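Q: Please design a sequence for this.
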């Protein structure tokens, strides 16, 4: 069996954490993936994965081999692109993901501007309000809002956004303005589940972060719908600052309890960490990061 093929399959399995997912990415059948890994293990004289019907973990031998395997694939990719004179020219297909509201309001315009400057790149955009696994879903770049866990992703910070509570002036005139977080229990709360997953509002105080458990009148998984309901006077909702900036500026919504709002959350562009970053990824990050930072600073 081709040794380079074995290495490619090994790295794909290590990244995906699954024989089946690696096979899907490489368009190989599960038996073909198994054969490649078995051939590699025979060649090394040691197992590279510990596998059962329910789990897959990389061994110490596999972990030591992984860095060199990645380097081999990276060097080969560089050599091939260098041979055809495309090492530094952004080209090919770029896949990007972000949350729905951020993607609509901030990301989409910059993607259009990027494509005008780099005509040899095509882009697909996935807007979803969940954390996407870049490796499993074949994503090149993601916008992540919130603290980043330790991972094999490279990250470039592009700003920070605040988590805010808002209501319409009409609602506050009818029901009064909450003066403390505990007052929220006396109000109609519209919960966007992406920001209130456990029905908890976490706020800052002199004693550190504290949470209040709320009893929403409605829970909804779409931020725009929750904000629309608040604007129509149905209650108080939680949003990220960029989502409601224009409505607050227009007087359609009012921020409440801003003095005890939780600390701002960082925003990053993240992408797989490799020794050699594809030109299309590097070009997009370098192009979009300063423009997105300007947008975030303006609307937060």
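A: Design:
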């Amino acid at each position: 069996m081709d040794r380079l093929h074995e290495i490619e399959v090994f790295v794909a399995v290590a990244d995906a954490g699954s024989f089946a997912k690696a096979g899907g990415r490489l368009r190989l059948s599960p038996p073909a993936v198994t054969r490649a890994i078995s051939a590699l293990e025979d060649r090394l004289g040691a197992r590279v994965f510990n596998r059962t019907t329910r789990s897959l973990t990389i061994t110490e031998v596999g972990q030591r081999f992984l860095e060199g395997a990645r380097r081999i694939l990276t060097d080969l990719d560089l050599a091939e692109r260098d041979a055809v004179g495309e090492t530094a020219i952004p080209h090919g297909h770029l896949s990007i993901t972000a949350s729905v509201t951020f993607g609509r309001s901030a990301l989409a315009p910059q993607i259009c501007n990027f494509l005008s400057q780099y005509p040899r790149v095509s882009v697909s955009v996935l807007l979803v309000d969940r954390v996407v696994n870049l490796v499993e879903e074949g994503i090149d770049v993601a916008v992540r809002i919130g603290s980043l866990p330790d991972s094999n992703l490279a990250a470039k910070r592009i700003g920070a956004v605040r988590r805010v509570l808002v209501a319409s002036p009409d609602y506050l005139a009818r029901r009064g303005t909450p003066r403390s977080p505990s007052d929220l229990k006396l109000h109609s709360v519209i919960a966007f589940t992406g920001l209130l997953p456990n029905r908890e509002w976490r706020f800052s105080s002199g004693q550190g972060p504290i949470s209040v458990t709320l009893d929403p009148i409605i829970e909804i998984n779409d931020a725009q719908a929750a904000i629309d309901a608040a604007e129509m006077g149905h209650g108080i909702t939680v949003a990220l600052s960029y989502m409601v900036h224009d409505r607050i500026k227009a007087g359609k919504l009012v921020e409440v309890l801003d003095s005890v709002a939780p600390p701002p959350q960082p925003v990053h562009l993240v992408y797989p960490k490799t020794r050699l970053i594809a030109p299309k990824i590097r070009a997009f990050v370098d192009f979009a990061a300063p423009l997105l930072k300007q947008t975030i600073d303006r609307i937060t």
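Q: Thanks. Anything notable?
A: The first strand starts at residue 49 and ends at 51. The longest helix spans residues 60-83.
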